[in-house]
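note to self: the first set is below, dont mix up w the second
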Amino acid sequence: MVEVRRTVVVKLDMDDSDATLLHETVDEYLWACNYVVQDAWQDDYKPTSKTKLHDRTYSDVREQTRLQANLVQSARNKASEAIKGVVARWKRGKKASQPHFTTPSVRYDKRSATFHDDRVSLSTVNGRIEAEYVLPPEEDNPHTTYLRDDECEVTGATLQYRDAADTFFLHIGTKADVESEIPDQGDAENSTVLGVDLGIEQIAVTSTGQFWSGNYLNHRRREYERVRGDLQRTGTESAHRTIERMGDRETRWVKDYLHRISKAIVQEAVAHGCDRIAFEELTDIRDRMPGAKKFHAWAFRRLYDYTAYKAEAEGIDATQVDPAYTSTRCSKCGTTLDENRPSQAKFCCQKCGYEVNADYNAAKNIGFRLLRAGQKSPHGGAISHLALKSGTLNVNGGYSPATQ
């Protein structure tokens, strides 16, 4: 059995007075998050402990807002996580500024919200309101598979307001124990990892030689930017509304595109009997990747998250590994030189002469990094093989052809 977690997005239907209460709740919740951060920023040593932050801010936030106690705690927890993220970057020698919350959202747990099959009861700044779910027909969709399934347990939700649609949505978290669709792999000698490299030109490349081009994604992104620029220069109210609608459409399109790639990556792992999928560590990826923008970093995180939860349903674990030298190390002989990568697309080992696509070489090295770390397979035993185009390599470099 494996625990599968899914998030189901549901549109909410409510009257105008209840919507107004939710807007007020969002505003005071964001104020509470920012108050906790501002209080922590008074000290040279930034407190990250939830207990310390609670002792310092809880009474003040309760006095200065109409938030119910559980929402005050939720805001504190959200602030604590953001502070921890900044402190962690500082410890790695990276720059990071004081967090500031502006996105209209609220985290609800099962104390501040009550979830039913067709509606939800949400705590607000003035009691509770009930909002109906706007659900699709009962067919093959996430709402039927997870939300309507009695075997799935709701764990909590995040309320979000989409300005372009002028509508509240609830991102409902669910979990369930399901039978793994991956057959028992037996002993550690059959444990296998799939390496995945991320990039701008090739958004994803696997150690089995599968490529997913980023050209279409980058082209569509540039087109959206061009149109937005034209509308911004127009400067009318109508142009501003069009920009907001475009942003919502673009986000939906990109998410769908990334979902399709993540599904294909998991299918590749299943086809090669992999127990794990190894990605490069995403922290500070913009600093390491020439030409990467904030959009690309967001897309990579989404792709990893989508792959992770799809893989989990197949009994496969997705993880991240240290990417140091994976782009300049020869996956054949191990020689690591900057000169091994004369261009973004080409890898040529200066010692053994191995020539191959640079992203494919990096994908193999990412997989090797997990092998050498000796991390455990979900089926028991250390991971011992790297999945390639036509077979596998063990941790010592021994090749085994694919079974026909």
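second set (the one i keep forgetting abt)
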Amino acid sequence: MTETSSTGATESRRGAARERGADEETGTRGGPGTAEAGVGSAAAAKRVDRWFARRPAVALAALLPIGAVTPLFPVEVGVATFALGTLVVGMAHGAVDHLVPLRGAPDVSLRRSIVVVSLVYAVLGGAVVAAFFAAPVAAFVGFIALTWLHWGQGDVATLAIAGVDHLPSSAERWLALAVRGGLPMGVPLLAHPEEYRLVAEWIVGLFLVDAGAAATAVDPLFTPAVRVGVGVGMAAATLASVALGYRRVRDGRDPGGWHRDVGELAVLWAWFLLAAPVFAIGVYFALWHALRHVGRLVLVDPEAAGAASAGDAVGALARFGRDAAPLTLGGFLVVAAVGVSVPAGVAAPGDLLAVSLVAIAAMTLPHVVVVAWLDRRQGVWRPGAGA
């Protein structure tokens, strides 16, 4: 009897240990850095970082020679690249927002997750479209500012979740946001103002009966003073961010990450200085920003994170693709709805790009709200605080 009890107790302890090990592998235990905080296991995070952030960054660096010759091509080449990137991954990266609250917090039901996010999208997306009809130039500027915020937000979250913790304070992370979000939005204005202006005219022109009025309307955005101010500001912010990190390296206080940060910043500066703006944004959107966000969503889905932990990239992507498919199609319906509603109509590739960007603007604002909620759950802007 004693031997049987002892054996049973031993097996019970072994079973408990196995359960704890399984919990640690899948990230289901409570506390910062776990599934409750919206992050998968360390193994999954490492693989996701490699698949969705490191390798795409290397790929973008390898594409620099191609990007350097794109200013010689017609802008339609950039439009086609943007359309392809949006079709392949860009539209899908935000199409799982309705499941983010469900997977990011233990007390949110599927119904509540879908209903709340749907309302956020309907109200805020509708407000953005209304803003373009009411004040297209102001709405365009707002879209640029919002994208600046969101793309920086996404990069900082990627660094934080990957454990690149050389940004130990909230202020330094906000500075990194300003730099990383500003490079795609600000550097093309400095390096290629003509094509940047053309896109602005296309967007604003959708909402003006007199198409020629668009050129006059966007004039204040493209003065030399604005371009120089943006360029100087971006250079100063980049140097400040790099210098703060280097000071930790010099003092032996950086646990890792500064060299990666500097390398990525160098690639982004070179990419947006050299490549034509529409082409550059199209490639960046699909290859950099969208993929990083997809990786982040893989980590908050237990099944996809489990596949990532096992090294199954195809399985993790298949799970994400299944969840994203319905609302990806919905996103293209939003593009179609904007296209049939604009006063100027859609008659050229530039008009199609402009319509797509307005529709993306309408989806970006609610998407930013959902991502900001996830940031808060994961403690992205409160280093060391956790969920």
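remember for set 2: Residues 1-38 have pLDDT under 50 and may be disordered.
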